[in-house]
User: Fold this.
Amino acid sequence: MSTSQVHSSPQASVSGSLWELVERVAGSPEFERSVRLRGFLLYVCERALQNRSNEITEQQIGIHVFGRPSNYNSGDDNIVRVQARLLRWKLDEYFAGAGALEPVTIAIPKGTYVPVFEPRVQKTPPVLASPVDAGPRPLFGVTPANLVLIVLVVILSAACAWLLAGRRTLAAVTRAATPFGTVWNSFLGDNRHTVVVSPDETLGLLEIATQQVIPLNTYLASDFQEQARAMSQKSGLDAIVPNFVAKDLASTAVAVDVSMIAAMPRAPSATLDVRSARVLNINELSNGSAILIGVATNNPWIQLFDKRLNFGFSWDRNHKNYCINRHPKPGEKAEYDSAPANGFRTVYSGVAWLPSLRGRGDVLLVLGAGPGNKMAAEFITNEKLSGAFLARLKSESKRSVVPYFEVVLRTTVFKTESATTQVEAYRILPSEMSPDEASALTH
Assistant:
């Protein structure tokens, strides 16, 4: 049975506002190029709204959506699992963009294929800008109207919700017996206290609007809120969202990153403390371990470690993720620019593992913006994706354990089809920070 046969005419029992939402999503540009993803979405939503969730299984989806025979082995054929990841990604894109005003969102939680319909809570309704001829000029290719959409799709302190994630018993991931376990034992092993620092998306949007990068010392200044408020008013952000700089915003993509980390097995004595960049104290980066998410612009704490790295991540003029290779080796590029070409979409992201400021713990940097950042988080939290690379680092360094490192990742997506993440370039880092470096970074 083909996808079109299954979903061209849903049963009469599927009706109402939720099905209308499903049809809007399925007819959106995010899904118009992929018949398979559209069929996937319609199939699972139709069955869920008909209270037939028992039919939403990997086997049934493979048969009814992807045309697999009734006796196919889903263990050998992972088409449904691969497409489910893309479907989740496309749903995130829709509700972060064209569907930002939808009162209800659709999500497919990991570990299941049953969709969840959730009301969207809007605490502060947006204030529309003045007519175009009276409003601020577009900056970085972002108009005030687009900034409204960006603000609408962020959620207040979303990452902090993961503080409630339950602890799991110590598993292989936190044992140092494998290269993957060596890395994560530094953050999730016995008696480890790790702070997870999410980006300050308010800061990132302010930098886009003002066309400037705000350094960490300015960000930490006692009068920064006054400075930021003045910049927000001058740039026109306050005309779009009153008192904009008072918002503590976190993107849905970052919430996904934090969820990947929080879901990993860890020792019973290990704790994770999720913080926004704006409420972090420097002592927390000096006396323990930390995981920093974002880029140096929207998470200025990354600036403390950026000078120790060869690869620098930021945003370009078009608000797209890019990476600078400060000292290219033969065959390497000087810049890695995330841009579409010939139907392909290439996104660069990165991961760096290095000692903390005073050497009393470790720091993991999950580098990138938007979908690239999600790919970096998925790479380093999935042993199947990163295990071989970490083993190679150990072998090349001729050390007994995995060395500190930094890596640039390239993710290529063809339209809406399968994404692949590959190692583009990497460096092995020194095993410790020099006293002069530590002194410079902590003063």
About this structure: The CA atoms of residues 25 and 99 lie 8 Å apart. The first strand starts at residue 104 and ends at 107. DSSP finds 18 helices and 15 strands in the chain. The radius of gyration is 23 Å.
